[in-house]
């Protein structure tokens, strides 16, 4: 067996079933890789005992011939997912010491399918950020580097997930995506990440950021691996009233690679001023690849695109200010030390000032402001109206026969850690191509498509019709085959 | 729209986050920058458009109005910073 850490989920599944490798062997390989990769800051809580026990169990199931696709597959789990008895603190100081008494639906489903948890992964605090620099654990680092050797961001908020998969520390990772937090990091590290349709995957047991936008999804090396992992994660859950009671199709079976006659929309509004030439070229190349594969390319317009980010920065903070009200120092996590005479209000204020980082405080306060008396209508309701228009833009093009939309995944390749951190609005622009998809509740996937002049990965995004992840994955599969991205970062960690 | 120091202080109070007086001017500047970015929404013609309630047209599922869970006070209190005699403990609330 070649390098086990460079396998795909599909390859590992087949090798496990054939008996070429055991889940225990595979798990030990990755635990060893993680041990030597502290410099990446990807894994923040290690769970080797759980991993070995799960692997032993998986080996039994495989031997008994009862092996779902994820059986024995070693994964990393984003710190945003509550995992029973294991620290789950959303990369926030305010949840220090919190060990959930319950298991999130997504991790339950993965574990029921036999998956192995290697540990918890770094992220931006409460998933608020695009560079993994707001984490209480410190930065996660991109395994890719430029020639100058400076450390680059793996993107965010699922930065640890991206870094871990790209560096071969696990075969796949869970991510969550509120404005681009799966797709942007996937693009920055040269892996594939899917945000499913809102409601496809249960949000129960995932620390909430903006409930009308949050959606969990897979991050892995290939489109096929995403299909396999999504299969295990998706499905209706009575504990999440917004999860859709729809049958989950066989996503892997949808991967035929045949996209003849599919209509691919190219939205003119995504051609931004000052967009690097390399991104333009990547986009044009991707368009040509899909055309060569037999798709019809159509120029389309999504006229409200430019208002997506400002609408998002009203709606997401508004929902966050409400969701994060629960961190009050009473029921879980951190409570500030109080001075003589301090009452309950001082306890709330000091606890939240100590427990939340600067970006989280900023968003909670912006959310509080836009929801406050006198501004609710001008900001919050207006943003929700604009959101309805953004969704209608997509509804209209899909109604006109478009099957999927191709855009760049990010406006640049991975940037240097520390470079954009001081300007929140500049940082927000990272999500310019991805945030529309969350506002419209659509599925979107980021596929690695090439390297820039500095040798850093670049990704393309495909956006699909609601509930048609299978069709979207198949288009992504065709793009993946044509782009043939197979580069690995040079190991320096 | 420029946010002044007093507004920043009021918002911090509403959000129950303690902000020291000397940090207020910088906070107000950050709010102003973010609100300036959001102002663009004013350009959009939203006449006759209903604010979005649910991104996927769905009727929330109903279930029987029965108890499905409970009777696990220990698990509920397990993560509390201060729990005593089966209750969450907090500083004095009433003057």
Describe this structure in words.
The complex is a heterodimer of chains A (about 500) and B (about 100). Chain A is an alpha/beta fold. Chain A has helices at about 10-20, 25-35, 50-65, 105-110, 160-165, 185-190, 225-235, 275-290, 310-325, 345-355, 360-370, 375-400, 425-430, 435-440, 470-485, and strands spanning about 45, 75-80, 115-120, 170-175, 190-195, 215-220, 265, 295-300, 405-410, 445-450, 455-465. Chain A has an 11-stranded mixed sheet with strand order 1-3-2-4-6-5-10-11-9-7-8, with helices on both faces. In chain A, helix 2 (about 25-35) packs antiparallel against helix 3, helix 5 (about 160-165) runs parallel beside helix 6 and helix 9 (about 310-325) crosses helix 12. The model of chain A has no long low-confidence stretch (mean pLDDT about 95). Chain B has about 100 residues and is mostly helical. Chain B contains 3 helices and 2 strands. Chain B has helices at about 5-15, 25-40, 75, and strands at about 85, 85-90. Chain B has a two-stranded antiparallel ribbon. In chain B, helix 1 crosses helix 2 (about 25-40). Chain B is flat. At the A-B interface, helix 9, helix 10, helix 11, helix 12 and helix 13 of A face helix 1 and helix 2 of B.
